[in-house]
Design goal:
This protein is about 55% helix and about 15% strand. By secondary structure, the chain is α+β, with helices and mostly antiparallel strands. The two termini are about 30 Å apart.
């Protein structure tokens, strides 16, 4: 919390501070509701292109223990990739680079997070919020449709749905001016917005 107070100093005068956070439980519920539409959006073109050669043998060719370990590893790798993409993108715009990026877990929700410890212009914050969906959700799904890989299709579906929290934060920030600032909340899913008060 101290880090955020220190970063507040540049906004002592001339800015209005507004808290913008999302409800993680609500985000998870929305994600569940979006699962079927996401499966249809990615799965329908996949099926139309690859229906004559679709096989689940590649997914379940080993014994059940190996399959479980394989998918657990893929699941964890996707979580790491999602948060790492947040961090790398925000680090590109942070004055202190990767030194301003912190990773952790919100144990109350058992939810991993990436936290930027310095304020960013909202335009840059939004870029960092959307990139995990692009690189960990959308592109793997597109790759799956092109190559016929069921594994990549499932990966893309899961991490598209997994980006729903990011989309809710983006929705909160879209009405804001792109030149104003956002500072990650240190313990909640969301941020403080600093709006420039007109002179």
């Amino acid at each position: 919390m101290e880090e955020n107070r220190l970063n507040d100093e540049q906004f002592d005068t001339g800015y209005e501070k507004v808290l913008k956070i999302i409800d993680i439980v609500k985000a998870n519920n929305i994600g569940l509701k979006l699962l079927i539409p996401t499966i249809l959006i990615y799965g329908l073109p996949f099926y139309l292109i690859w229906k004559d050669s679709i096989s689940f043998k590649d997914m379940f060719s080993a014994d059940s223990g190996w399959v479980f370990l394989k998918w657990l590893t893929i699941f964890l790798a996707g979580i790491v990739a999602h948060e790492l993409v947040h961090g790398i993108t925000w680090a590109l715009y942070a004055k202190k680079g990767f030194r301003s990026i912190k990773f952790g877990i919100l144990w109350k929700y058992i939810t991993p997070y990436c936290h930027c410890k310095e304020p960013l212009q909202i335009r840059h914050y939004l870029i960092g919020a959307i990139t995990p969906f692009i690189f960990v959700g959308l592109l793997p799904a597109v790759y799956a449709i092109i190559t016929g890989s069921i594994n990549w299709l499932l990966f893309g579906i899961f991490y598209t749905v997994g980006a729903v929290g990011d989309f809710l934060i983006i929705k909160l920030l879209l009405p804001e001016k792109r030149n104003d600032y956002a500072l990650d909340h240190p313990s909640e899913a969301g941020c403080y917005v600093y709006r420039k008060i007109p002179a």
